[in-house]
Amino acid sequence: MPWDDITPEALVRDHTVYSCVMGSRAFGLATEDSDTDRRGVFLAPTPLQWRFAKPPTHVEGPRDEQFSWELERFCELALRGNPNILECLHSPLVEHLDDTGRELLALRGAFLSRHVYETFTRYALSQRRKLEADVRQQGAPRWKHAMHLLRLLGSCRDLLRTGELAVDVGAAARDRLLAVKRGEVPWPQAESWMTRLASEAEAALPESPLPAEPDRARVEDFLFRVRLRSALAHAPEPGPHDEVVQRVVRPRRGVG
């Protein structure tokens, strides 16, 4: 196979294992003018990993509002508790799923841990500072960003309380959050809401059903198996070193 001819776009087109819709449509906050944000995970064939020039860790496009990660990079970020990655894993709007993608979704719980408190709230704090700067400089925040910050804080609190990540905000929260987006909620009231949600998330942390650490071993085992299957699927014609490769890839029984 001419590996040199594989473009980033081809990796997404031909090797995507999981893709979904994110953003307002997945959150249950879409309106008539909402974009369709697509996120995905592709598996670069293992032979590409053996070259000095590695495959890309992420690809933007080829469609508008589309972004994809290579599987290993995606897992690394998920293990760190990256909010965007974890929410991508739990999107209710799945567009494509193959066998590897099903294995990935079956591992969703392995990525969750109490580290989400730090990663979610750190991201929320950075976004809140931007909103506060907008208020100082322009007299009002970007209300759409304020809505999404409130959604994120509520998601963090509920995740710590229940151990489960719900992406869709539900009908009751939708109305309140969309009122924020329309600028119908005064900034002091929205700011007070943010503070309350952050405090509730902190209070939920000590008794959270989430484990202290993600299950890195399960994720590593998954990656090893996926890479091995890909290597065997794209194995070259037998050559002079084939016997050595077979001993490494398929060790004989009784050999440690």
Describe the model.
Strands 3-4-2-1-5 form a 5-stranded mixed sheet. The two termini are 33 Å apart. The chain has helices at residues 8-15, 24-27, 46-49, 71-79, 83-89, 99-106, 108-111, 115-138, 143-162, 171-181, 187-204, 216-233, 242-249; strands spanning 16-22, 37-42, 58-60, 66-70, 94-97. The protein is of the alpha+beta class and 256 residues long. The chain is 56% helix and 10% strand.
Primary descriptors:
256 residues, 5 strands, globular, disordered C terminus, alpha+beta, five-stranded mixed beta sheet
- Beta-strand proportion: 5-15%
CA-based shape? globular
How many β-strands, per DSSP? 5
User: In whole angstroms, how far apart are the ends?
Assistant: 33 Å
Overall helicity: 55-70%
Radius of gyration: 22 Å
Q: Write down the overall mean pLDDT.
A: 91
Write the layout of secondary structure elements.
Layout: H1 8-15, E1 16-22, H2 24-27, E2 37-42, H3 46-49, E3 58-60, E4 66-70, H4 71-79, H5 83-89, E5 94-97, H6 99-106, H7 108-111, H8 115-138, H9 143-162, H10 171-181, H11 187-204, H12 216-233, H13 242-249
Helix pairs in contact: 8-9, 9-10, 9-11
In short:
It contains 13 helices and five strands. The protein is an alpha+beta fold and 256 residues long.
